[in-house]
Amino acid sequence: MTVDGRDPDIFKQFFAVKDAVRREELEFPVGLGLEEARVLMTGDHSDLRADGLALVDRDTWLGIAWLDWWLLDNTDTVDVEFAVDPAYRRRGVASRLLEAVIERARAEGRRMLTGINVAGDPVTGESSGTAFASARGFVRKHAELHQVIELPLSEEQLAAVERPVPGYEIVQWGEHTPDEWIDQFAELITGMYADVPHGDRTVEATQWTPELVREAEARRVAQGRFTYTTAAVHTDSGALAAYTQMGGTPERPERLNQYDTYVHPPHRGRRLGIAVKLPNLRSLQSRLTQSAVLHTWNAPENTPMIAVNEKLGFRPTAQRTAWERRL
Ligand SMILES: CC(C)(COP(=O)(O)OP(=O)(O)OC[C@H]1O[C@@H](n2cnc3c(N)ncnc32)[C@H](O)[C@@H]1OP(=O)(O)O)[C@@H](O)C(=O)NCCC(=O)NCCS
């Protein structure tokens, strides 16, 4: 069946399958919360449309496929996540869903399926998801290491890696980028998406505009998310040189995410990555009312970032793999 995300009962059952599989597969069941996911599936967004398919036997939901249809870039691609109830695996459930996804994707003129399986052994990367993807014609394109650390970090831990960078000032904001930075910030995010290691993935980088930044901010607020941004401004030129973002949702206070960290190329090599991360971490920690785990993902080849994280005390918990299949 095609899932109508606007029907609250259907959406709840659909989400329950996806969420239960993540809880079963992962030490830390990362992923969208119910309300975050609902906003994606029911709202109107410039950059994507999300919908889904499910295989249901009478009242039993055997498995689901969540689909992201990109609308601004990668418009020949559909991103898919499969989740099958462990009680019904190895009976062709995901294979049947895949056939239905391919049929829909082709009918809408899409030429490629992509997917990321988030559960994978931290060393080998292998899981049921990688076995399924290889068996069904997907090609392995990239890996990312998932690292975690328990918060709060002590002032001593933070001070051990902190070095002030002369010539730059730190600015911070919450849900809304100040108007004075919005143009430069859109350029920095564009750079981040273009430069982040993609391995062999076929990725068309998004050209961010101030309007898209504002739309992403409004969507996060609608999803109930909170976000902390810290940026470094080059004092002499007034250029926004680096930024980092972290956040979470009140729905899952024990889980916080490290989102982007980016240093504009002319300003690299001065440890600005740490210079923005640490004040951001301090601000994030200041709102904690319980211990929490901070999550981050980096390509294994992104050694400087992983080294910084290890220095702070992050440990690996899983390795996820990005896949592509041409249609
Ligand atoms: C991956 C997953 C969706 C597969 O669902 P499924 O319904 O069991 O898959 P199918 O029965 O259609 O399997 C098709 C083929 O994939 C391969 N395969 C699937 N799971 C496998 C496993 N655990 N070990 C080895 N091979 C496997 C086999 O070749 C299988 O054919 P066979 O059973 O005839 O040998 C399911 O295990 C799952 O939900 N895993 C957790 C979430 C995930 O990793 N999702 C994929 C990322 S998007």
Automatic annotation (TrEMBL):
Pfam families (UniProt xref): Acetyltransf_1 (PF00583)
Keyword Cytoplasm in record: no
Boundaries of every N-acetyltransferase domain copy: 1-195
Tagged with keyword Endoplasmic reticulum: no
InterPro entries, per the entry: Acyl_CoA_acyltransferase, GNAT_dom, MshD_Acetyltransferase
Top-level lineage group: Bacteria
GO molecular function: acyltransferase activity, transferring groups other than amino-acyl groups
Keyword line: Transferase
Protein name from the UniProt record: GNAT family N-acetyltransferase
Species of origin: Kribbella pittospori
